Amino acid sequence: MQQGSSSGHASGKLPRHVAMIMDGNGRWAIRRRLPRVAGHRAGVETAKDMVRLCGEKGIEVLTLFAFSSENWRRPEEEVGLLMDLFVAVLEQQVKELHENNIRLRVIGDRDALHATLRERIQEAESLTGDNSGQTLVIAANYGGRWDCCQAARRVAQRVKRGDLAVEDIDEEAVRRELSLDDLPEPDLFIRTGGERRVSNFLLWHLAYTELYFTDTLWPDFDRGAFEGALAYYASHQRRFGRTGEQVARMQGV
Ligand code: IPE
Ligand code: IPE
Ligand code: MG
After folding, report:
1. Which DSSP category does 89 fall into?
2. How far, in Å, CA of 38 to CA of 219, rounded?
3. 67 lines ligand 2 (CB under 6 A)
4. How far is the CA of 23 from the centre of ligand 2 (A)?
């Protein structure tokens, strides 16, 4: 769906970066009278489909919210099962990601993660780090507020070392310390599961992202549903503060 294709608005292009809140696994399972973890397992299949679809379409970066800094509040059993699932998925999928030239990055506070999980993440990132195809970002124990705090700490350290003057702290100085640093900002945000909220996901980065919410539960989010989100994106003019006329002129429309 490149610019000028019949499938979208002339000014709408394919997003370079899509960020997704994978919500609704628990309700999907409960409706089927299954344990919540069955929903999380089904959700992994959707996540794999999305990685494949993004590759097919040429979307450069896919960021998936897998576990928030607030999800520790869930019952211990569910948290444990989610962590085990994460380790298992990494072990099973890393080879395939690597074969497909995909670079994996994990964002979030790793200190609280189990040592085995930390090791798997480290191995996966170093194996795939030089891959030049898509980038898959998994947000695990991630919180947008945590990200802002850790960036603030790093900026403060630069000031303390004498590498940066207080007057020179600008958006660029903060942005480069945030978790997604060199990656393009998300163009499209998708939240499944019916809630219209950001739940402490990428707070800084979503400043100008197109927000798309759908009632579809994550395990049911399929190719057709994703196409719907891409069509929504393609039909919206991104103005970044300018007028619609200015943007049209810039795009030669
Ligand atoms: C999202 O699905 C997955 C995680 C937060 C790990 P939920 O588990 O939040 O599903 P619902 O919202 O209870 O249906
Ligand atoms: C957001 O979903 C976090 C992830 C999908 C990992 P939640 O289900 O935790 O969000 P809230 O609690 O409904 O806001
Ligand atoms: Mg939820």
Report:
1. H
2. 10
3. yes
4. 6
141 is catalytic: no
**What type of residue sits at position 216?**
T
Q: How far apart are CA 1 and CA 234, in angstroms?
A: 9
Task: Going residue by residue through the chain, which has 253 residues, state the pLDDT in tens, using 9 for 90 and above.
Answer: 333 333 333 345 899 999 999 999 999 999 999 999 999 999 999 999 999 999 999 999 999 999 999 999 999 999 999 999 999 999 999 999 999 999 999 999 999 999 999 999 999 999 999 999 999 999 999 999 999 999 999 999 999 999 999 999 999 999 999 999 899 999 999 999 999 999 999 999 999 999 999 999 999 999 999 999 999 999 998 999 999 999 999 988 7
Neighbour count for residue 134 (Cβ, 10 Å): 19
Whether 187 sits among the annotated catalytic residues: the reply is no
Ligand 2 atom with the shortest distance to the CA of 21:
5
Q: How many domains does the chain have?
A: 1
Full domain range(s) for residue 142 = 17-146+185-250
CATH number at residue 123: 3.40.1180.10
Whether 95 is in a domain gets the answer: yes
The ligand whose atoms approach the alpha carbon of 21 most closely is 2
Residue 22 near residue 218 (C-beta atoms within 8 A) = yes
